[in-house]
Amino acid sequence: MNTTTPFWEPDWKRIQAPLLALRRQLASFPSPPLRIMKVSQLDAELLDDELFETMKEQLWSAFSLFKPTFKEKFKPELVLALNLIMYKFSVYDMGATYGSQLQNLTYRNERKHSGGLQSTATDAPLTQTQKVAYGAITIGGQYVLERLNRIISAQGWSELPEDNIKKKVWNALQKAGSAFRILSLVNFLAFLYAGKYRTVLERVLSMRLVYANRNSNRQASFEFLNRQMVWHAFTEFLMFLMPLINISKIKRNAKRIFLPAALMSSNELSELPPHICAICHENNTATTTPGVVTSTVIHNPYTTNCGHIYCYYCIKTKMMIDDEWCCLRCGNKVEAIARHIDVAEDKAETGHTEESAQ
Predict the structure, then answer these.
(1) pLDDT in tens, 140-180
(2) Residues 184 and 199: beta-carbon distance below 8 Å
(3) Rounded CA gap, 326 and 155, in Å?
(4) Which residues of 99-134 are buried (b: 16+ CB within 10 A; e: fewer)?
(5) Cβ–Cβ contacts within 10 Å for residue 329, how many?
(6) Which of 205, 182, 105 is nearest to 190 (CA)?
(7) Spatial distance between the Cα atoms of 181 and 175, rounded to a whole number of angstroms
(8) Residue 48 — pLDDT band, cuts 50, 70, 90?
(9) Residue range 105-148, pLDDT digits in tens
């Protein structure tokens, strides 16, 4: 049996100490910063919100047969239960929300990656303390604030005297809310610069979103965005075009083409009494509100060239909108109008007769 040692073994043993020292020095060197796309992190938050709203709609539909007061009374508790269930099966079990998983993101314990360990291949998972604290503050804190706001609104803490303890608590809560909003704004600006922590709580607990699989490329589909842009442009074009289209003129021309003249001239408006304005009657029939009666008696009468009487405002408006407007009673085109003075002449003749008799 050959027991000769390899020629390289002495040299290998001799350089072990320098290699160990070199490894320790490399660990202290700063590694390249880990860059996570900010848009992916924000998209994950939006997806979580959309999913929660969808689940909440399903929850409300399940309680649709209950009394409305039941849902309103226990709404904070129902939202709390839904949040806890979703949190249990997402962050607590999987280490990431559903939206983050769709964006190929997961949480890691950033405390384990300080110094030169930012870009290490293996990400440290969240600790039990981080998971419990994150869920307790985000879900439990939201529930406590919702219940507290209901109590404050019901008891009117904001309207109490300044020396009342409840008023002081309300003022303190208002100041705390303003301070938290300012802090959130500063944190968001820092996120836009560095791209590490979306919220203040994630920064405090050192919970950072990183890529779950760094070898997979981000696949962004712009099909939905393109469809939305095309539909938005199309609706804007329709909104611009609709005021330019005279719908009543198109309907009238279509009736002239497809309906016989006898049917055009015979309609229910032609049977109205002479003292009723056909335009007022048509508008009143189309837009009548239950319990509200609108007068259709002719005011300030004007006669058309076809001999029918309308209100001045009604007939003048129709002629200004449509220069080929047709009379509602006979269907003939209205070309001119004149003030109707038959009633005034009858009164004048009656007064003259009475003076002659005296």
Answers:
(1) 999 999 999 999 988 888 888 888 999 999 999 999 999 99
(2) yes
(3) 64
(4) bbbebbbbbbbbeebeeeebeeeebeebeeebbebb
(5) 20
(6) 182
(7) 10
(8) very high
(9) 999 998 887 766 666 667 889 999 999 999 999 999 999 999 99
- For residue 136, how far is the Cα from the chain centroid? 28
Report the b/e string of 229-238 with b at 16+ CB within 10 A: eeeeeeeeee
pTM above 0.85, yes or no: no
149-153 contacts: CB < 8 A, separation 24 or more? 150/76
- Reading the block at residue 277, the tokens are 């304005």
- How many Å apart are CA 304 and CA 315, to the nearest integer? 9
Tokens of 189: 């600006």
Residue range 188-220, pLDDT digits in tens: 999 999 889 999 999 999 999 999 887 776 666
Alpha helices, DSSP H only, in the chain? 9-14, 16-28, 38-62, 68-73, 75-87, 93-94, 98-102, 128-135, 141-155, 165-194, 200-205, 223-241, 247-258, 261-265, 278-287, 312-321, 342-357
Q: Do residues 304 and 327 lie in contact, with contact meaning Cβ atoms separated by under 8 Å? A: yes
Are residues 195 and 38 in contact, defined by beta-carbon separation less than 8 angstroms? yes
The residue assigned the tokens 């003022």 is 171
User: Is the separation of the CB atoms in 77 and 108 below 8 Å?
Assistant: no
Residues facing residue 146 across a β-bridge: none
Closest CA to 314 of 299, 332, 324: 299
DSSP element (H, E) containing 106: strand 105-109
Q: What is the dihedral of CA 235, 238, 240, 245, to 10 degrees?
A: -160
